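Now for my pick.
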Amino acid sequence: QVQLVESGGGLVQAGASLRLSCAASGSINSINAMGWYRQAPGKQRELVASITSGGTTNCADSVKGRFTISRDNVKNTVYLQMNSLKPEDTAVYYCNALVAPSAWSHPQPYWGQGTQVTVSS
C-alpha cells in the first residue's frame, strides 16, 4: 500500500507565500512523475505543476513565474512553493504520484487526501 500525505495548506492574504509538501510512504520501488493538482468549488480538478524523476518540470500557465515545484527523491517528497498568491488560487490542492510498488509492477497513480489553500483579498 502507498500513502501520500500532504501538509502546508492554510489561510493567507493575497501576495503571501505558502509551501506545500507531500511525502510518499509504504510499498515503493520507484516513483516516476509527481505533481500537484487543484480543485476549486464548482470547477474540475486541474494540473498545477508536475516533475519527472529526472527533475523536468511543467507548470500551468496560470501559475508560471509564481509557483515552483521540486522534489527530494531520497525522501520521496514533492514540494510546491507558491508565491504571490491570488484569491483565484483558492482551492483544495492534491498531490499525485506515479508509483511502482514493486520491481515487477507497472507505475500506478496515487493521490493524497488534499490540503485546503485559501487566499483572501
User: Anything to note?
Assistant: The two ends are 40 Å apart (CA to CA). Residues 53 and 73 are 7 Å apart (CA to CA). The chain has a mean pLDDT of 96.
